[in-house]
Write a structure and sequence with these properties.
The structure holds three protein chains of three kinds.
Chain A (H helix, E strand, L loop, with lengths): L2 E4 L3 E4 L4 E5 L13 H9 L7 E7 L7 E7 L5 E5 L6
Antiparallel strand pairs in A: 1-2, 3-4, 4-5, 5-6
Chain B lengths: L13 E10 L2 E7 L3 H7 L6 E2 L6 E2 L12 E6 L2 E7 L9 E5 L13 H4 L8 H4 L7 H13 L14 E13 L3 H12 L4 E4 L15 E2 L2 E2 H14 L3 E4 L2 E7 L3 E6 L15 E13 L3 E3 L12 E3 H11 L7 E5 L3 H11 L5 E4 L7 H8 L3 E4 L1 E7 L6 E6 L11 E4 L2 E5 L2 E3 L2 H5 L5 E3 L4 E3 L7 E3 L9 H20 L10 E2 L23 E3 L4 E2 H9 L5 H8 L12 H12 L3 H4 L11 E2 H5 L16 H6 L2 E6 L2 E7 L6 H14 L2 E4 L4 E6 L3 H8 L12 E7 L5 E11 L2 E6 L4 H15 L6 E4 L4 E7 L3 H8 L15 E6 L2 E6 L8 E7 L3 H12 L5 E2 L2 H11 L37 H4 L5 E7 L11 E3 L12 E9 L4 E8 L9 E6 L4 E8 L14
Parallel strand pairs in B: 1-7, 8-9, 8-15, 9-12, 15-28, 17-24, 18-19, 18-24, 19-20, 35-45
Antiparallel strand pairs in B: 1-2, 3-4, 5-6, 5-7, 10-11, 10-29, 13-14, 14-15, 16-25, 21-22, 22-23, 26-27, 30-31, 33-34, 35-41, 36-39, 36-40, 37-38, 38-39, 41-44, 42-43, 43-44, 46-49, 46-51, 47-48, 47-50, 48-49, 50-51
Helix pairs in contact in B: 5-6, 5-11, 7-8, 8-9, 12-13, 12-14, 18-23, 21-22
Chain C lengths: L5 H8 L18 E7 L3 H14 L4 E4 L15 E2 L6 H15 L1 H5 L10 E5 L2 H16 L5 E4 H7 L15 E5 L3 E2 L2 H14 L3 E3 L4 E7 L2 E7 L2 E10 L5 H7 L6 E11 L9 E3 L5 E5 L5 E11 L7 H14 L7 E13 L5 E4 L5 E5 L5 H18 L13 H4 L16
Parallel strand pairs in C: 1-2, 1-11, 2-8, 4-13, 11-18
Antiparallel strand pairs in C: 3-7, 4-6, 5-6, 9-10, 10-11, 12-15, 12-16, 13-14, 14-15, 17-18
Helix pairs in contact in C: 2-7, 2-10, 3-10
The chains are: A mainly beta, B alpha+beta, C alpha/beta.
Chain lengths: ~90, ~1000, ~425
């Protein structure tokens, strides 16, 4: 079971969190013209790297904050956790 | 009855307490502290079972977790456990066990015919045959094979035992209480670390219980006892026996199963049978020891062939002799220890040592004792079928290729020692890439991957002095890192015998013209020839060898067979072992009871149950409940002999005619507050929200980014910056997370907060033409006229002293209101409504009537919003704003979503106005078309229309908008139904929506 | 090629089994092939076999970074079925069922196809309705399906929890009688042996390190055993697709996730069918060896680890005991993990790509094993003819642009929710 450091609450077991997917995906701005390709890339395409992966988790049974986690998808090692507005 | 194989004095068992037990129906006795295995051996029972494939006789091979043979059906407290390991099962009064995988008995097993035909059953034989005729595999051959396979029998009774879970955190988890574990634990504990020391066996001390060593002027055993006693008394230490750490998972989470009551005839009250520990350890010290490696020779699976270390353990711990005429077959010094123990107890062993005249202290001692030692000798084959009667032995050449003249010598057991294999399972599970150590011909831990350190023989260190020194150091260093203390304990002096090198030899060649089976995996009957065949056929990767031969896949998971298998592959392929590699070690180290993994979440508690505050009222009034996710909701309220159909029809009719009340507490409720709340809703929902006035509710639809409808519900503006959102019961949690995602990640600039209030409010929907009358009496002070509280209006009120929120919203399509009060007042509200409503003939209605009401009104719900439909499909295109952007809008212009013949919700009525259309039927043009019959749509929801008194259904139909008036067929082949139908509008009742506004 | 039969087995027994030939050779790669299939798993091996058998293309290499059959074909729960609602899925997997039925004879290798029936349990009327929709769709597609009530289920599976102490009582279920199991390793080995005999080179321990793409056309691959040229290349690498796609500068609508499974110790026969729980995600069958084979949810985060964590298994086994209380007394013997190529609508992709001569086969989610023959058959067709077959026409990449999604579960792009 992963041990995830919530930037707000401290380190907690994975069962307090739910996964939220690829955090490098950026939603196009509202009311902005985007091409079909740009939009479909946002909705469907994922890099899914083997190795370092920046991803969202939500501390759902804790502070309910969405956080960013940089984790190795091959070893599950967590390098860093961040608030959503912070960058690596 | 005397025990022929029990010595008088030696051992750690309690001779004052006799324990009687039964094996295969026959009564025996043993002593407290025996295992089933030791007690059986003491009684001279060596035949316990039959092997998996050839049904060869099976006895005991080890004395613990590595045991490949002795698997029995256990009976305890009127329950039965399949596949208990006799070497681990402690004896308790009244224990009963039976042999498995044999018929009619272990002594005379028909299945043993396989053994005589074994040449036709080499590895993988089943891949090459049983193919003709085609259907015979699963009709004839497979059922036969299935019957022959498997060991124990599972009872289909519910397990009466209790299993518990415990979560624990520590600085240091130490797995194994042998010398290395004790030393690390002691050093760390004395340095202030929080320590958990886990021992799989009932007794602490590991190898110290059976070895002749001296630590700090005490015997090894005494030293271990003193250390354990001290550790047990320390507040910062948890010590557990009968506790196996079986899995090393991510981020230093380890899992341990503790057999709390397995050793007793009956579990103690308030005490679980087993306890599963999830342990998050800052550091782990793996002191899991090592397992003796077998030597491979002809018929080496005969009962009476045992590991030399096991023979020693039976002798020193249980006072039991595995034989009175032992042959010790060894390639290293360890076999001598066993021989010396035999000799000390008056038994004359013979040692066959594969080495050519080696020299060491212990060999000298054996010589001094006059033990018969034959150097450069091997066992060629064991003789005897159900028990070793003699052995064929021979001299072996220096290059280990040629055998001398074969001689037969009498013996009743053969104790084998092929040196030691470090137990690296946990280390490997942690992600540590193991490395091969040529000094000891085995894999040892490599670079640590997680916070783990391996000590003692698990790390390939086989001298006690070095083990203790390193382990004390490790315990101190690691604890210092964590506690920052620097309290050192002194390392005691050690007296032990020095051993010399082992022989790199494990597999005795076959003499010419002899076809003895030489087994690697004893349980699965994998012999040397099987591995050779696999390699010859091109199954050369070690994983292919394993899978093709089933080597190492038995219930012991190859603890004693894997390394010999690897050795054989490397010899055959002319490769070194590290380049062959080993198969992956995966948890669990040893099989774990599934009940223990699951814990308390069984039966009714396998998932939580959510109930509304009015639940007990519903129960009292004959509600029949339905699971809605984990909620329980009244489906209908049974009166007299009514069934579902009659009751729900009555309830729905009463809503249409008079008034009904429905518990809607389960709907998701979310409070939304902040100056940007309107803007936020405007982005979340497909329709416009900026101009919703205070005191008004609006129906909204929200999409996922892929354009699919995610949820629907009403949201009410309570005050300027405060909204109350409702969601469907099913999507409540998802919607909240969804809102939080957008607020925290996508649009953090919006000043809005959301919080779930589902549990805070109890809700009652009051629906029907007389609902206003009921409401007026509930809230006499409020103007609830059509002008005062119009459709989609909202007011707050005082319900007999209780704060209430009143929404004029309707799911039933009738004039309706929804009243919310704080949950604690839910029952009060409900009873008031029922009480006051009596004069207006109010009746409670359940989800089934609710469903009828919404279907005939054409309101879509979960069966239409099924995660595959867009607003258009549900007739909700009017709610999709063209002017503003919102979540998922950009996806709606895709070609499939805008296709001319896009599916759309419609109504379906059977032409005969009688035949109900089963939900899940499909609509087709031609009922008799050739398969595959093209489907135009499916029936999503059906009801008996109480308005028109005929069946009515909703369907999602291709080109639905142009299909009204068409005649089609509804087909349900599952129910053998073909129903001619007409497509009508989905708004079957009150299509203009006048009632809700009346 | 040596023919396997009971007669050859007896004949060889008297020769001490010394005369068996290798099941497949161990060739060094040639300089160039007509087709290279990357990935020696079930789908790759099947593709090579059908290229040779159906399209007479035998100058083919399978390039495998580890050992053949070491991916998901060797680490699944061996279930075969075609009980799908969407036409694209139903018809595709039913083609697969046809191929399964004759596979042992076609391959002269006993893959132990065993149509023991698969039963999906339902625990509410709503679920019965959803199953009816699926079952009726199956029947109208010519696939066998039967709807069973509670009492009928009880007759077939008396060891289910029919007691009062049950959280989600059983209402009934949907059964596909022809669904069942097959021996997973045998499928890989059977295809390998036949492909090898028809001239396909099976190159193990050969890792692809790059691609040669010139002017939008595929030219070959770079591997740990050197460069190999090819006119056409097919990717069949399941959970590793994204890594190879990255070498090709492609981003795909898939994510790699971890799925665990486990087996109990072997017990005497107790369960004939494959059974799935309806109030959670758990499925179970009993192997010919007697082990209960069990699986369920994903671990729930992107992973290439092939190693999972216990809470997921705890969760899955909780549902297991809720379904089969007798599992409580059994012991979990072995666990393992596979990495799944989870697509954004839960359905696979078998298609051409924007690179000429490069073909894609991925997105199998949890369902890859049963798809093995149909996947190989249609992928071989797609490669050989340079166009999709009608059976895999719906499995195009373009559907994520057009909206023609094939979402059996209605869960959308959150692939990790099972």
């Amino acid at each position: 079971m992963l041990h995830i450091k919530c930037p707000y609450c401290g380190t907690r077991s994975q069962n307090e969190f739910v996964y939220g997917g690829d955090a490098t995906v950026k939603r196009p701005q509202l009311n902005k013209e985007v091409s079909d390709k740009e939009w479909d890339t946002f909705v469907y395409l994922r890099k899914s790297p083997r190795g370092k992966h920046l991803e969202f988790w939500q501390h759902i049974s804790g502070c309910r904050q969405w956080i960013k986690v940089q984790r190795d998808t091959a070893t599950h090692e967590i390098f860093k956790t961040l608030k959503p507005n912070e960058d690596i | 009855m005397p025990q022929d194989f029990r010595l008088d004095k030696i051992g750690l068992i309690n001779r004052n307490k006799k324990i009687s037990f039964k094996f295969n129906g026959k009564s025996y006795f043993g002593y407290e502290g025996d295992t089933l295995a030791s007690a059986l051996i003491a009684n001279g029972v060596h035949l316990v079972g039959r092997s998996f494939k050839y049904h060869r006789p099976r006895g005991f091979f080890g004395a613990g977790v590595d045991e490949p043979y002795a698997i029995v059906q256990l009976y305890r407290n009127n329950e039965t456990d399949p596949n208990a390991r006799a070497t681990e099962q402690e004896l308790f009064e009244g224990l009963e066990a039976k042999s498995v995988n044999c018929w009619p008995s272990v002594n005379f097993d028909i299945g043993a015919i396989n053994n005589f035909l074994n040449k036709f059953f080499p590895a993988g034989f089943y891949y090459k045959t049983f193919m003709w005729p085609r259907s015979f595999w699963y009709k004839v051959y497979e059922p036969f094979i299935r019957k022959a396979a498997g060991f124990g029998v599972a009872s289909i009774k519910h397990d009466k035992e209790r299993y518990e879970h415990k979560y624990e955190y520590c600085d240091l988890l130490i797995t194994g209480s042998g010398p290395s574990g004790l030393a690390s634990a002691y050093a760390a504990a004395k340095n202030g670390a929080k320590v958990i020391l886990a021992e799989d066996k009932p007794r602490f001390g590991g190898s110290l219980l059976t070895s002749e060593v001296n630590i700090g002027n005490q015997s090894g055993k005494e030293w271990a006892e003193n250390i354990i006693t001290e550790l047990k008394e320390m507040p910062n230490v948890i010590v557990r026996n009968r506790a196996q750490v079986f899995g090393y998972y991510d981020h230093n989470m380890l899992v341990m199963s503790e057999r709390v009551n397995d050793h007793l005839a009956k579990s103690k009250k308030y005490s679980p049978k087993q306890r599963l520990w999830y342990i998050r350890a800052k550091e782990v010290v793996i002191s899991s020891g090592s397992i003796e490696r077998p030597l491979v020779f002809g018929n080496n699976d005969t009962p009476g062939v045992v590991l030399s270390s096991a023979a020693k353990e039976y002798l020193k711990v249980y006072g039991v002799l595995v034989g009175r005429n032992p042959l010790i077959f060894t390639n290293n010094d360890s076999g001598y220890e066993t021989a010396i123990e035999f000799k000390k107890n008056g038994i004359w062993p013979i040692i066959l040592d594969t080495r050519n005249n080696p020299n060491s202290e212990i060999i000298d001692e054996a010589k001094r004792m006059g033990i018969d030692i034959k150097f450069s000798h091997v066992v060629v084959a064991a003789k005897g079928y159900k028990k070793v009667k003699s052995a064929e032995i021979a001299k072996i050449s220096e290059d280990k290729k040629k055998l001398g003249a074969i001689k037969n010598i009498n013996c009743d057991c053969i104790c084998v020692s092929g040196f030691w294999t470090p137990t690296i399972h946990l280390t490997s599970q942690s992600g540590n890439k193991t490395k091969f150590n040529e000094e000891i011909d085995a894999f040892v831990p490599g670079q640590s991957k997680q916070e783990e350190t391996t000590v003692g023989s698990a790390n390939g260190i086989f001298t006690l002095e070095e083990t203790l020194k390193k382990s004390f150091e490790v315990g101190h260093q690691i604890s210092k890192k964590i506690t920052k203390n620097d309290n050192k304990v002194s390392i005691p002096t050690v007296v032990e015998k020095k051993f010399t090198k082992h022989d790199k030899f494990w597999c005795v060649p076959l003499p010419k013209e002899k076809k003895y089976k030489r087994f690697l995996d004893f349980q699965n009957d994998v012999a040397v020839t099987d591995v050779e065949l696999a390699l010859r056929e091109g199954y050369r990767s070690i994983e292919h060898v394993k899978r093709y031969t089933t080597l190492g896949m038995a219930t012991d998971q190859g603890k004693t067979s894997n390394l010999n298998g690897l050795q054989l592959v490397s010899d055959f392929e002319n490769k070194i072992i590290p380049s062959v590699g080993h198969t992956t070690f995966r948890p669990p180290y040893t099989p774990v009871t599934i009940g223990a993994i699951v814990g308390r979440e069984v039966g009714k508690h396998s998932k939580p149950t959510r109930k509304s505050p009015m639940h007990s009222w519903h129960e009292k009034h004959n509600a029949v409940f339905v699971d809605a996710g984990i909620w329980l909701r009244p489906r209908y309220y049974k009166q007299g002999n009514e069934g579902l159909f009659e009751a729900s029809k009555r309830e729905a009719e009463n809503v249409r005619r008079n008034v009904g009340v429905c518990d809607v507490t389960t709907l998701g409720k979310i409070d939304i507050k902040g100056p940007d709340a309107a803007e936020f809703l405007n982005r979340v929902y497909t329709n416009a929200w900026l101009k919703l006035p205070v005191g008004k509710a609006r129906y909204g639809v929200m999409l996922r980014e892929d354009g699919i409808v995610m949820d629907d519900g009403t949201t009410t503006r309570i005050s300027e910056n405060h909204y109350h959102m409702t969601t469907t019961t099913a999507q409540a949690a998802n919607v909240l997370s969804h809102l939080e995602y957008y607020l925290q990640i996508v649009w953090p600039e919006l000043n809005v907060n959301v919080v779930s209030t589902t549990e805070q409010w109890a809700g009652a929907a009051i629906a029907g033409p007389k609902s206003r009358n009921v409401l007026q009496k509930l809230f006499p002070d409020i103007d609830i006229s059509n002008e005062g509280l119009p459709f989609m209006g909202y007011v707050e009120g005082n319900l007999f002293g209780v704060y209430a929120r009143i929404f004029r919203i309707s799911f039933s399509g009738e004039l309706a209101y929804e009243v919310n009060v704080e949950s604690d007042n839910g029952n009060f509200m409900w009873e008031k409504i029922i009480d006051i409503g009596k004069e207006f003939l109010i009746q409670p209605y359940g989800t089934e009537a609710l469903s009828t009401l919404r279907i005939e009104m054409g309101h879509v719900a979960g069966s239409e919003l099924d995660g595959r439909t867009i607003p258009y499909d549900n007739g909700l295109q009017g709610l999709v704003s063209k002017k503003k952007d919102f979540i998922g809008k950009r996806s709606l212009n895709r070609s499939a979503f805008t296709a001319e013949d896009r599916q759309k919700v419609v109504g379906v009525v059977p032409l005969d106005k009688k035949t109900s259309i089963p939900e899940g039927s499909h609509l087709v043009k031609d009922a008799n078309a050739k398969l595959p019959n093209p489907k135009l749509g499916h029936v999503s929801a059906s009801c008996w229309s109480v308005e028109y008194n005929n069946p009515f259904s909703l369907a999602i139909l291709r080109d639905g908008k142009n299909m009204i008036g068409q005649k089609l067929f509804a087909l349900s082949p599952l129910k053998n139904k073909t129903i001619p139908v007409e497509i009508v509008s989905s708004h079957y009742v009150d299509p203009k929506g006048e009632r809700v506004r009346s | 090629m040596q023919k396997y039969s009971v007669f050859s087995l007896i004949k060889n027994a008297f020769k001490g089994h010394k005369d068996w030939e290798v099941a497949w050779k161990d060739p060094t790669p040639k300089n160039e092939y007509d087709v290279i299939i990357i990935g020696g798993g079930g789908h790759g091996l099947a593709t090579a076999y059908y290229l040779a058998k159906e399209h007479n293309i035998t100058n083919v290499a399978i390039v495998e970074k580890g050992w053949i059959g070491g991916g998901n074909v060797g680490r699944n729960t061996t279930i075969l079925r075609s009980n799908y609602m969407h036409d694209q899925n139903g018809l595709f997997y039913e083609k697969g069922m046809d191929l399964w039925r004759s596979m042992s004879q076609d391959l002269n290798f006993n893959v132990m196809y065993s149509p023991r029936g698969i039963i999906n349990l339902a625990h509410s009327d709503a679920q019965m309705n959803a199953y009816s929709r699926r079952g009726n769709s199956m029947r109208l597609n010519g696939i066998d399906a039967v709807l069973l009530g509670r009492e009928e289920i009880k007759k077939i599976l008396p060891m289910l929890d029919f007691s009062d102490d049950v959280r989600f009582p059983i209402f009934g279920g949907l059964m596909q009688p022809s669904g069942g199991t097959a021996r997973h390793d045998a499928v890989a080995w059977g295809y390998a042996r036949q492909a090898d005999s028809m001239g396909v080179d099976i190159i193990q321990h050969c890792e692809v390190t790059g691609f040669d793409v010139t002017n939008g056309k595929i030219k070959g691959i770079k591997t740990s055993k050197g460069n190999i040229k090819a006119k056409k290349i097919g990717l069949c690498v399941a959970g590793n697709t994204s890594m190879l796609a990255e070498m090709l500068n492609m981003t795909l609508p898939i994510e790699t996730h971890l799925l665990q499974a486990c087996v109990s110790e072997p017990i005497k026969p107790i369960l004939d069918q494959v059974v799935t729980f309806g109030a959670g995600h758990f499925y179970c069958s009993q192997s010919d060896k007697g082990e209960m084979v069990m699986g369920g949810d994903l671990d729930g985060y992107n992973s290439y680890a092939q190693r999972g964590n216990l809470p997921t298994l705890q969760h899955v086994l909780t549902e297991g005991i809720a379904m089969f209380p007798f599992l409580s007394k059994l012991k979990m013997l072995r666990t393992w993990g596979g990495i799944m190529d989870m697509s954004m609508d839960g359905s696979p992709i078998i298609d051409k790509t924007h690179i000429e001569g490069l073909y894609l086969n991925c997105g199998w989610c949890y369902g890859g094993f049963k798809a093995t023959p149909a996947s190989g058959w249609t992928f071989a067709h797609t490669i050989a003819q340079d166009k999709v077959h009608e059976l895999n026409a719906g499995y195009n990449l373009n559907r994520f642009n057009t909206g023609h999604l094939i979402d059996e579960k209605g869960l959308g792009t959150k692939t990790w929710i099972s």
